[in-house]
């Protein structure tokens, strides 16, 4: 019996050491220096009226000032379902109309996002009268998306559709199982049926997902990319992951999900800290995002070798510039965005 237990403990020890060695090897691979990069990566932005309003900005003026001032050529916009359908079955697309039209006037290409989950907190934007009945909610969602796609598919500046935003990430103030694989599959299928001319993108977390669920449903896969985050239990945390982390996952979905086109749909460009953004001092904001950090993350993005990236945070750059008299973030962003126009 003693020999048996010695054998078991020895086997457990070898398994433990093997796992540690494997983790170390993976860490080395992910952080191995990258020599090649996409020098021609194009940079766009995301823009949200919801976030602009939360900063006390005039959402229309800030939008046109951002488009003109940064000379943006690519933008990711969202249609907020609870803003469009304030009365059952009655759609008001006036806000989205205005955003897309202003982009079209300037020859700006648009990714138009729709669904239950779209960019910005609280992540899920569901009309209150559909909150508690999942079956009715999904039926109404597809009807709303049908109307949206029919309305905008003739806009020549819409480059692609995005169905949901990180639907497989459990994050946000959302009902249980607000989005799942079956719903996303139906959303993508309906979009492609209504408009077979444009690709459909599905997105997922860059650091917290293996990407497979989103990538297998999409024509284009979009990943988030963050470098510095804040967790109350840890404080500020820098992901110890080099660009090979993203390259390795890209290879994985290329092999197992037949996914060949990957973009960075959400590239960190604003602070992530212990308080709401406007409640933090500039010094605190700069702990997780600053002009130098923006330069660094743009360079990191180029080393993933993906084709394009959309910065998150343009509203904040504008807020700093116009409300706080701090233009360094704006100036740095403009230089990066215009580096490969």
How many structural domains? 2
Identify the CATH architecture of the largest domain: Alpha-Beta Barrel
Neighbour order of strands in the largest sheet: 1-2-3-4-5-6-9-10
Average of pLDDT: 93
Principal-axis shape: globular
- End-to-end Cα distance, whole Å, is 73 Å
Helical amount: 40-55%
CATH topology of the largest domain: TIM Barrel
Rg of Cα set: 22 Å
CATH homolog superfamily of the largest domain: Glycosidases
Order of helices and strands: HEHHEHHEHEHEHEEEHEHHEHH
Proportion of beta-strand residues:
15-25%
CATH class term of the largest domain: Alpha Beta
Total strands: the figure is: 10
Please outline the major beta sheet.
Answer: 8 strands, parallel, barrel
**Number of helical runs?**
13
The secondary structure category is alpha/beta
What does the model show?
With 341 residues, this protein is an alpha/beta fold. It folds into 2 domains: 1-30; 42-340, Glycosidases (TIM Barrel), CATH 3.20.20. The chain is 45% helix and 16% strand. The strands form 2 sheets. The protein has an 8-stranded parallel β-barrel with strand order 1-2-3-4-5-6-9-10. A two-stranded antiparallel ribbon has the order 7-8.
């Amino acid at each position: 019996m003693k020999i048996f237990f010695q054998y078991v403990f020895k086997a457990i020890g070898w398994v433990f050491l093997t796992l540690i060695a494997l983790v170390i090897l993976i860490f080395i691979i992910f952080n191995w220096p990258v020599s090649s990069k996409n020098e021609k990566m194009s940079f766009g932005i995301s823009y949200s009226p919801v976030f602009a309003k939360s900063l006390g900005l005039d959402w229309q003026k800030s939008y046109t000032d951002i488009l003109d001032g940064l000379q943006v050529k690519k933008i990711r916009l969202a249609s907020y379902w609870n803003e469009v359908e304030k009365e059952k079955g009655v759609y008001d697309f006036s806000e989205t109309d205005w955003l897309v039209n202003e982009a079209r006037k300037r020859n700006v290409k648009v990714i138009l996002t729709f669904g239950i989950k779209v960019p910005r907190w609280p992540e899920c934007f569901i009309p209150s009268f559909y909150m508690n009945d999942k079956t009715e909610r999904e039926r109404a969602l597809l009807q709303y998306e049908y109307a949206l796609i029919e309305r905008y598919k003739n806009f020549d500046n819409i480059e692609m559709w995005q169905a949901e935003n990180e639907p497989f990430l459990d994050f946000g103030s959302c009902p249980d199982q607000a989005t799942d694989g079956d719903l996303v599959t139906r959303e993508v299928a309906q979009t492609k049926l209504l408009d077979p001319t444009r690709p459909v993108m599905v997105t997922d977390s860059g650091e917290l997902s293996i990407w497979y669920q989103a990538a297998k449903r999409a024509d284009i896969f979009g990943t988030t990319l963050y470098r510095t985050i804040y967790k109350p239990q840890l404080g500020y945390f820098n992901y110890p992951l080099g660009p090979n982390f993203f390259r390795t996952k890209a290879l994985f979905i290329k092999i197992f999900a037949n996914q060949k086109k990957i973009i960075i749909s959400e590239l960190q460009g604003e602070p992530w800290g212990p308080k709401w953004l406007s409640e933090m001092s500039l010094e605190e904001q700069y702990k997780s995002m600053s002009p130098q950090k923006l330069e660094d993350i743009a360079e990191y993005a180029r080393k993933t070798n993906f084709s394009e990236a959309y910065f998150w945070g343009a509203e904040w750059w504008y807020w700093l510039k116009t409300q706080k008299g701090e233009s360094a973030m704006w100036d740095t962003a403009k230089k990066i965005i215009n580096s490969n126009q």
